[in-house]
Structures are given as C-alpha cells and as structure tokens.
Amino acid sequence: MWTGLPQRLLSGVSVIAASLLVASSISGASGLSAAPGCTSDDVVRIFRQQLERDPESEATVAGRVGRPCDQVEDEVANSAEARALRAGMVEDLLRQGRHIFRFDTFGDEAFWGDTLQLHRAIIGAKNGGVGPGVSPKTALAVGLKVDVDALPNSLRAALARGEVNLDDPATTVALLKLNAVIGVKAFTNADGSVRSMGITCALCHSTVDNSFAAAIGRRLDGWPNRDLNVGVIASLAPNIKAVADALGTDVATVNKVITAWGPGKFDAELFLDGKGFRPDGKTAAVLIPPAYGLAGVNLHTYTGWGSVTYWNAFVANLEMHGIGNFFDPRLDNAAKFPVAARNRLGHTQVSLEKDQITAKLAALHFYQLALAAPKPAAGSFDPAAAARGRALFVGKAGCASCHIPPLYTEPGWNLHTPAEVGIDSFQSDRSPDGRYRTTPLGGLGRRATQQGGFFHDGRFPTLLDVVNHYDGFQHLGLTDAEKKDLVEFLKSL
User: Fold this and answer.
1) Residue 35 has what pLDDT?
2) Which of 272, 365, 366, 373 is most open to solvent, judged by the fewest CB atoms within 10 Å of its CB?
3) Which segments in the chain show pLDDT lower than 70?
4) Which residues contact 135 (CB under 8 A, 6 or more apart)?
5) Architecture of the domain made up of 383-491
6) Residue 287: strand, helix, or coil
7) Residues 107 and 323: beta-carbon distance below 8 Å
8) E strand segments, 365-424
9) Greatest Cα pair distance in the chain
C-alpha cells in the first residue's frame, strides 16, 4: 500500500508507527488505561458542572463509578434535566435581552425628557406640556410605530370602528402610558401625568408588520425603521439648545442639520465631528442599519468602528445619552473628532452605582445575535432567475469574493478602502479606520421593499443601480439579462 510514496515519508511513517506500538506496549505493561474509570469525586464533579447540583443519592454515584468519565459526562450532559437547564438559561438570557432591546432607556430620560423636554412638546399644553402637542396621526406620519399587542382589546375594537380620535394629542399620551409606542417610554407622576420620556433601541431598530393598520401591528425586532424621521422628532424639543451647546453652534444650525436627515436616516458621527453636510451639500446622515443577521459578523456599522457589543455601548452612552461607562481613546483625536475630544466622550465615566448600561450589554448582545435575517416575502422574486443569479454572484460577477456565503460578508476584519468600493471617502473618513465595511446581505430582499435605497447613504435607489455600479467600476461585462438575474438573487436573500 506504500508503493509510490517518497522513501523519506515511508521512513517517517515507520518511525511514528513504531512509536505508537512502543507506547501501547508500555501502557499495557504498566496497567495504565487510555480512558480511566470515573471515581466518586469525578461523578460529583460532572453532576455539578452539567446540572449545577450534587447527585441525588449514593446509588446514583455508585452506579457510575468505574465507567469511563467521557461516557458518564455524555450521559449526564444529554439528560432531559441538563437539556432543560440549558434551554432555560438560553431562554432567560433571551428574555432579558429582548426586554432591554424593547423597553430599556439606560437612563436616557435624563437627556431626552429632563434636559431636552421633548415629552412636553409631544403631550402638548392641554396635557401639561407646551405647544399643540403631537397627535397619533402626526406621530405615525413621522414614522413612529404602534405595538398592537400592547393595546387592550377594547381599544383595538374602537380603533377598528374609527371611534378613536387620532387628531388629539391626548390619545398619544394614552398610547405612551400603555407602552405601545415602539421605542418611546413615558415616565409618569403618581397622578398619571407625564413627567419625562426616554428612548430605547427599538425606536430605530424595530418596525411593525402593519397587520392591524398602517404603522400599527406586531413588532419586527431588528428591522430598520426606514420611515422614522428622527431629526424632525428631535427638532420639536423645547430645549434643543443643549444639543447646540454640545456641538458648539446655535439652535438654528442644529435644526437645519437634523431636519435635513429625512426618513430612515441618522448621523451618529455628528456628535463626534460636527459635520452636518457632505461637500456636495447633501445630508451627512446615513441609513438606519438593520440589527438582525449579525451572528458571526465582526464589525457592525457601515464604516466599522467595532463589534456589535462595542456599538451597543457606544450608542447607549453617546447617542441615546444613557448613563454608563464608555472608553475609546480613538475619540481623543481632535483633528478627526473635535466634538468628541472636546467633550471627552471617549472617557465617559460614572460611578458603578449609577451605571445603567454596562450590566445589560451581555443580554442585549445575546438577543441581537439571535435575531435572524428575515426571509423574502413569498412571490417577491423569480426563483429560476435567482438560481442563475447565484451562479453569477459566486462566479462571473465576483460578489462572493467579499460577500462570502452564508455570512455574506468576510469573516474577520471586513473593511475595504473607498477605492476598493469605487466611491468617495467622505463617510469612511469620519471613522477611525477610514474604510467601509462589507455589508452583510442577509435580509436584503426585505430591505429592498423599504424606502431609502442602498449603500450607507442610500445613494443607489435600486439594486439594479448597485449592480450597474460594480459592473462599470470593476469592468465585469455583465449583460442586461445577467444583471436582472443577479438582482433576482439579491432579492432572494
């Protein structure tokens, strides 16, 4: 069987084989065993590790003493009790993370409510606030969503019959008290009046399925809310001057910048570098990204920055303005991040007793990684064309050289220079690494049905525009038919 192998390899194999035979004979002669039997202490250890308890009786231990430990460990680890214990741990962590994602403000009501006084503009003068208030009709128009599962049956019925006044801010107040406005949490006094408000992760990274009515339905956690006009909502705050002071500018400039964002966009870097507009005069804001399909993905944002849990800490502290600790000395670079450096944002510190963020990051991270990318809607793409498109994706078009299935991004440091992507460097220059991330494509078929376009800033209105960009930039030589097939495959993701 060794015919044709080099002599030096045959010699090496012989030496290894001889060594193994010698080791075997020594083991047998000395009475040693490759898999020694379990002692009573081993059995107790295995029970504590796998079931977090001691064995129920001496007989339980005695019946396993002397058996190979790996067999005992497999038996206990695969018992119904162990499986239930692990499932309970997972479910408990998921529940914690889901609650944090949906309802935890991280203490940011101190900023949005107590400082900016945004709740006063929303509830209106008639309800203890200021101005006309925000009616449900207006709230839905600026992209806020309502969780139908939070509505009492009587209210659902009244809504269905058209008996609820959607032009009255008092109805908005009632919805806030029910915790039904996704991503917005009201804090009330003993008499039921609203005294403050905060925001949660779900404000930007959840929407609804519209199962009850437009903008009213069951939650879709992780989906980017591409209807949400964050800038218009924030501009209502009576004390937006607090933002202007932090940025080192005036209220008029702040309102001009944030109201230019438009639906489905937000500019996290504004509070770092103070840049409100691109050189071409367009807003510097980028599309709200999805929070689903991130399991296995390294860098989270369009321009990298850090991992999913890094970005959670960044946003909770610096964007939501929660109360916690955050460290990133890269923000000390005054040339690149003048606002952040001036305000020492990379060294955000509070006492452990006041920290409302750090202890929640693990469960939040776990929940986000469990949010799978949604499948495309039935009938939304041509399966035959998508199959041809997949062949192009991994072949002639070369897409899979970066968007590697099944992650559809690169494992590892998934960043590229602007020159490699074929676009300008404005947004990448606002990040520490000066690069663009390879966007994971999971859920792309669903995102294609939302407004906003594609790439970080929505510069390409359609998927065909994206394909045309790469076809021209990389000289792929795709035919019109191949481009259409490739689009159908992208819609199938």
Assistant:
1) 52
2) 366
3) 1-36
4) 166, 167, 168, 169, 171, 172
5) Orthogonal Bundle (1.10)
6) strand
7) yes
8) 415-416
9) 95
Supply the pLDDT for residue 98: 96
Return the closest-CA partner of residue 400 out of 381, 391, 465, 415: 391
Provide the whole-model pTM: 0.85
Kindly state the helix (H) or strand (E) to which residue 219 belongs, with its residue range.
Answer: strand 219-221
Answer whether 449's CB lies under 8 Å from 226's CB. Answer: no
Token pair 């050189």 is at which residue? 279
Judge whether 474 and 402 are in contact, CB under 8 Å: no
Q: What are phi and psi of 296, to 5 degrees?
A: 90, -5
State how far the Cα of 324 lies from the Cα of 69, in Å rounded to an integer: 46
Structural domain boundaries in the chain? 108-264, 383-491
Residue 31's Cβ-count burial label (10 Å; 0-12, 13-18, 19+) is: exposed
Residue 127 region by backbone torsions, left for phi larger than 0, else alpha for psi between -120 and 50, else beta = alpha
Q: Between the CA atoms of 59, 61, 65 and 69, what dihedral angle is there, to the nearest 10 degrees?
A: 150
Q: What is the C-alpha end-to-end distance of the chain, expressed in Å?
A: 49
* Amino acid identity, position 283: T
Residue 493 corresponds to which tokens in the numbers above?
């993701």
Give the pair of three-digit tokens for residue 416: 């590229």
Return the number of other C-beta atoms located less than 10 Å from residue 20's C-beta.
10
The confidence score (pLDDT) of residue 484 equals: 98
Distance CA 153, CA 270 (A): 43
pLDDT digits (tens, 9 = 90+) for 332-372: 999 999 999 999 999 999 999 999 999 999 999 999 999 99
- Residue 146: name the closest of 124, 164, 126 by CA: 164
C-alpha span between 203 and 224 (Å, rounded): 9
Cα gap 58→47, rounded to integer Å: 13
Residue for token pair 């020159």: 419
Q: In Å, how far from its chain's centre is CA 466?
A: 24
The DSSP result for 169-213, as a single string, is HHHHHHHHHTT-BTTEEEEE-TTS-EEEEEE-THHHHEEE--SSB
**Identity of the amino acid at 193:** S
Encode pLDDT of 300-344 as tens digits.
899 999 999 999 999 999 999 999 999 999 999 999 999 999 999
CA angle 243, 247, 252 (to 5 degrees): 65
- H or E segment at 429? none
